[in-house]
Amino acid sequence: MDLGELAFAGAAEQARLLAAGTVTAPALLDLYLDRIARLDPQLRSYRTVLTQTARQEAAAAQHRIDTGERLPLLGVPVAIKDDVDVDGEVTACGSGAVSTAAVRDAEVVSRLRAAGAVIIGKTNVPELMIFPFTESLTFGATRNPWNTALTPGGSSGGSGAAVAAGLAPLALGSDGGGSIRIPSGWCGLFGLKPQRGRVPLAPHDDAWCGLSVNGPIARSVEDAALFLDVTTSTPGPAGGFVDAARKDPGRLRIALSTKVPPPLIAKVGAEQRAAVDAAGALLRDLGHDVVVRDPDYPPAAVYGNFLPRFFRGIYDDVRRLPHQDRLEKRTRNMARIGSLLSDRRMATIRAAESALAGRIQSIFDDVDVVITPGNATGPSRVGAYQRRGGISSLLLVSQRVPFFEMWNLTGQPAAAVPWALDRHGVPLSIQLVGRPHDEATLLALSAQIEEARPWAQRRPPVS
């Protein structure tokens, strides 16, 4: 196989090639290390590359392969978002406020290692994962491989840029308000926000007051399903997620919605609306029942529930940091807002989630999947918010990404599915939202779309 094709083959296919002896684990790792050395100075997708330990892990993986051992990711490099602990490495979270290395792997990293993964490096994030663009004063700006003047999104922007540019076959992301789905959409990748509690967060349980989850940013639906199979902490579908992704989804009831959840105000681009319409047409042709219907979004859900949890989550993260004086000014200001929310007030807000989620999820009494636009517009230019404060930046950038937060509040699975390139040559996506705990249907439907409209062959200019 051509080395360029191998770099973009994806995690599941690479695992098969490794098991068959077509490629060795050290050679596969060296392919990515070479690509990172050549291309990442333009992108800054990695905060740190773990060259020495990754080579040791790749050599050990090859020995296990040679002795006949078979594991789902044995020898496959995986990138880790830099809000997740890797033993012996600083979990910088995009900030200079952390200086102490983690003393053990996070649970999700332990599970990836148990499946045979080689941890290749830690990917860049905005400070404390606050914004949907990946820029920090400490580590600089991560750029989109489709157009390096633009952001890849955030906060898992380093993971998105790395997988899109062929600098990793698979990456771990986290999502507290779209942070997997936003960069996946703008980088042309499949990104899945799993059901809350599906993938372990330990030792950082209940991150952002229950809003955040860990999940995959992947080149294919199969790769994302494989990630879930090796990391899930709750029972999945019979036969596993990879098997679910291979199944015919059957005839589904699907609702199309381009309504911006109130009270957010955003103008959804014509191309993004057209993508939802085209998805509806495709799915009708594939035999599904498709209707136009909006979820019942409570007007108070974003400002009354999501945002208090978001701000309090920032405050909780900040007060655990050893060097708070090194934080960016806008991070400190946003943490101050969170400090005004008492434990008692947060308990009341958390208790209101069930009723809000029930109202939003009532649409699933009649449909199996809801489809919305992914990002409402294309990505912003790198540095667009550099001179703005935290609240100003948040208000402006939220107009680009209004379709995600609701599903962090409800906790149910949602996926960014690549659709096309916009008129500027940047990827755009649709979002698929499933019933609670029903990643299986999302994977099966996404795989059906992937077969009808393949996306994995697309290569960004920086690749």
From TrEMBL:
Enzyme Commission number(s) from the entry: 3.5.1.4
Q: Where are the transmembrane segments?
A: none
Which catalysed reactions does the entry list for this protein?
a monocarboxylic acid amide + H2O = a monocarboxylate + NH4(+)
Amidase domain location: 28-443
Among PROSITE patterns, the record links this protein to: AMIDASES
- The lineage's top-level taxon is Bacteria
Pfam assignment, any one: Amidase
The similarity comment for this entry is: Belongs to the amidase family.
Q: Which NCBIfam families match?
A: PRK12470.1
Task: Write down what this protein is called.
Answer: amidase
Record organism: Mycobacterium cookii
